[in-house]
Amino acid sequence: MAKSEENQETFLKIYNQSGKKFKERRKQKGWTQQELCDAMKNIFPDISVRKSYVSEWEHEREYENAIVQPRAYKILCMAFTLDMHPSEIYSIKGKKEPFSPKLRKRLRSEKVFKKNFSRKLNSIMIEKGFSKSLLADLFYKEASKMGILISADFDSIKRNIQRYRNGGRNLPLYYLILFCKVLDVEILDFLS
C-alpha cells in the first residue's frame, strides 16, 4: 500500500500518534517496557501482555500493512495503567475525561469488557437508528477512507459486527476506531 497522505486521517497516522503518546507517557513514569507490563499485570491480573507487545505498539510504522493489530481491551488497559484517558488513543470531539474508578470496573476482565462493549454498541445503534446493514455499509466506506483493509465481502463485515454486538469477540483497535467514526461517538462512550 502506498504511503499515507499527510493531512488525511488514516489508521496508520492514528496508530503512530497513539504509539508515540504511550511511549512518551511510559518514559515520563520512568518505566521500561517490562515495568509497564508488570504494572498492567498488577492492576489487571487476568491480562497477558509481553514486552514485545508494548514494543510493537510503540514502534512507528511507515506502511499500513506493517501494522500489528492490537486488541482494544489491551490498549485500554495499558492506557489506564499509564493514567491516560481514552481520547489520547483516539477522539472524535477532543473530549478529555480521565478513566474513573467506575470505568476501571468495566476493564476488570476481557469478558466484562466484551459484555459491556456489546451492550453499549447495541444501545448506541438503537439510539442513532442504525441497522446492521447501514452500519456495515458505513463501516466499509470509512475503513476504505482510512486505509484499513477489511474483508470486501459485505456479509463478512455484517457477521463480524454481529459478533461484537453479541459480545463474542474482543475487537481490534481499528474496529473500535471505526465504530467511533461511523457512530460519531467517543471511546469513552463505549465504556460508560
Features:
about 190 residues; mainly alpha; 10 helices; about 0% strand; disordered N terminus
Task: Offer a concise description of the structure.
With 192 residues, the chain is mainly α.
Describe, in plain words, how this protein is organized in 3D:
The protein is mostly helical. It has helices spanning 11-28, 33-43, 51-58, 72-81, 101-106, 110-128, 132-145, 154-165, 173-183, 187-191.
- Rg from C-alpha positions? 16 Å
Give the termini distance in whole angstroms.
36 Å
The largest pleated sheet is described as: none
- Number of helical regions: 10
Encode the helix/strand succession as letters: HHHHHHHHHH
Number of beta-strand segments: 0
Q: What topology emerges from the helices and strands here?
A:
Layout: H1 11-28, H2 33-43, H3 51-58, H4 72-81, H5 101-106, H6 110-128, H7 132-145, H8 154-165, H9 173-183, H10 187-191
Helix pairs in contact: 2-3, 7-8, 7-9
